[in-house]
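Quick note —
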Amino acid sequence: MTEHPGEAAPVEENTPAGLLPAAGTGRGQGRRGLDEGSEDLPPNLTQAILEATKQVGSLLKAAGHPFALAGSVAVYAHGGPDNLQHDADFCILPEDAEAVATTLRKAGLHVYTPPEDWLLKARCLGQDIDLIFELARQPVTRELLDRAEQLPVESVHMPVLAVTDLLAGLLNAFTEHHCDFGAVLPIARALREKVDWSRVRRECGGAPMPDAFLYLLERLQVIEPEEDSHDGP
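Predicted structure written out below.
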């Protein structure tokens, strides 16, 4: 769910000791010729990203680090779209960033600091991992992590950001330079019955871009209009 700058030069081996991609990783590839134009479609990385998520989640759990799964894999864990294309995101406390990096490095993962100052990055089973300690320009807090739900990511249970926190984070990340309603709309549709929309409005509706998105959801009848919302004088 997050943007990825070019990776820094590796400072250590980035193949986790004893970890190999699971069978079926990269499914959806190798179908050239079966469908016209299929070579132009992005590869289906869902299974590869899920395997990397399970590995990192297991490492963080075993080390006792407070964390919560975020981003597109968290949406998937809550029952949202399952076509994963980018990375796995984990929220961690700012004060735990160095300890988390040490845990992952000891397991053989390559961990590095990108130019952005709100996350660390890692590689696991060939997939990108974002270790986020600032979400939508706000530090990750223990209260946020405490609201996480224990959900299975396939066979591994782990804390996953609450649905309302997920949606609020996506809306609060909208800016004049990055405002992709099309990416968030299917998530809002899929998870709408689990979201506390009153809280989302309180936390996000004061900014113009989130307010416009909420209005779009009302016009599309994804959510009920709030009483007196957008009424004229």
